[in-house]
Amino acid sequence: MVSQQPRSRFPLLLSYAYVREYKPEQVEKWFTDPRVDVLLDCGAFSTKNAEKEISLEKYMAFVSRWGDHLFGYLSLDVLGDPKRTDDNLRTMLDAGLKPIPVHVLGDGQERMDELFEMSDFVALGGLRRPNRGHCPRSYVKQKMDWAAGRRVHWLGYTREPLLRGFRPYSCDSSNFTGAERYGNVRIYMGKGKWWNTQRCDAKKKDLPLDVAKILLRLGYSADDWRNDDLWRRNSERDNTSMRFLAQQIVIDSFMRWVIELEEHCGVRAFQAATMIQKQPDYIWKGLDDYYQNWSKP
């Protein structure tokens, strides 16, 4: 199932691996916000890295309950196992569900055509591989040649030059969590330009005027930029209400990049969110800032 709503909502990706642990009222809030399109990932990549596995039966029950509120939901793929991936897809289809099928690493052109007979929208896996990083450009090109202009979603792959060159319908990444997980601070300056730094040396750099203006818009001063407390990760704090400067700036930057990318290239870059600690607050603030004049389709 893929929603045919006008492309004006913010593209947000949530993983079943995380949301299955949350209360129904929390799930309902995220899935029904009229400003977002939620794409549900089955969580195969996350659980593969954690050496855990998703229950097909429980996943099907979850999407049966919430599927009507979603932009779409992925079939339960099994990384490195095309046979089990196909079995899961057919089980979901036989149950009356409409998952987005996944063309996994090891699948060929014939399989691509077969999946498009089942759905008008196919997700491309194998572009980012557990513990190995991004695939080569030649692999992306091969997949896009097989897709032959049909609607595809790039799983976990947002290299901008390739997005602008191949222009898939959509893609996704975990950019929102970069500050929390890796200490990466990327501030979007607009028109494809970024100002990059690391948590460990950000305060050593001179703060450009344009960056200072972005901080000011978010309620931070140049002094805040040098405040150690505001750079502490959520897990390092006793006061959970204290803001995490780097996380808020990164989320704000990627929200602006996502909106600009779709406007200029027609590519929807779904941003993966864990929705834990302060992250939801920063996402809702961004929605309030950028969609205050937005009207529901």
Strand content: 15-25%
Please identify the structural class as seen in this structure. alpha/beta
What is the typical, i.e. mean, pLDDT?
A: 86
Number of domains in the coordinates? 2
Q: Main β-sheet: number of strands, strand sense, barrel status?
A: 8 strands, parallel
Query: Which strand order do you get reading across the main beta sheet?
Result: 3-2-1-12-9-8-5-4
What integer value in Å does the Rg equal? 19 Å
Please tell me about this protein's structure.
42% of the residues lie in helices and 17% in strands. It is an alpha/beta fold and 297 residues long. The strands form 3 sheets. It has an 8-stranded parallel sheet. Strands 6-7 form a two-stranded antiparallel sheet. A two-stranded antiparallel ribbon has the order 10-11. Strand 4, helix 6 and strand 5 form a beta-alpha-beta unit. Helix 13 packs across helix 14. The longest helix is centred in the last third of the chain and has 21 residues, at 245-265. It is globular and about 60 Å long. The chain starts with 9 loop residues before the first strand and ends in a 7-residue tail after the last helix.
